[in-house]
Every structure is written in C-alpha cells, then in structure tokens.
Write a structure and sequence with these properties.
elongated
C-alpha cells in the first residue's frame, strides 16, 4: 500500500508541473505555514497526529513570529475596552 501512495503522489506532482518532493515534506510545509499565520500550536499538533504541541514548538518554533506587530495589535484590541484609569472604590469623606 505505501508504494501505491508514493506512485499516486509522484503522479500528482508531475501533473502539477512542480519539482519533485517527498510526501512527508508537505507536513513540514503545513506546520510552517500555519505557525507563520499564528495558528495555535496545539491545534497544529493535533492535525499532525502529535499528542501535544511540544514537538511542533521544538521543531517548527523558529517559524513563529516573535515580536510581530500583529501580536501587539491583538493585545491592544483585547484591552481596548479596558478603562485607562482605575475607578475609585471606597467612601469619600465630606
């Protein structure tokens, strides 16, 4: 059966007109692309058949955006509804 899958894969690659690559390389491409798009590493691990995100983070973590403006924007959006000053709690003396 594995030989048949390889033959089918090779046939698809040839018809697509792209350079040959092994089927396993698509897993690497998937993980890298998903991480660069900020996908949850635990979800990626599940899709790849891993029991947790450890391997995804160790092997593909370098593809995760580190200090991207996108991360800052996400935080700002989450906290945009927060008050800029703390409300006064307690009693006032008259």
């Amino acid at each position: 059966m594995p030989g048949r899958i390889s033959q089918l894969w090779d046939s698809c690659i040839k018809r697509a007109g792209i350079r040959r690559r092994i089927l396993n390389q698509t897993r690497h491409t998937f993980a890298c692309w998903m991480l660069t798009e900020d996908a949850n590493p635990s979800w990626i691990a599940t899709q790849m058949g891993h029991k947790n995100a450890k391997m995804v983070l160790e092997v593909y973590g370098k593809f995760m955006p580190s200090a991207s403006q996108n991360q800052v924007e996400k935080l700002n959006k989450k906290f945009s509804s927060c008050p800029t000053s703390a409300p006064f709690i307690g009693t006032t003396k008259n």
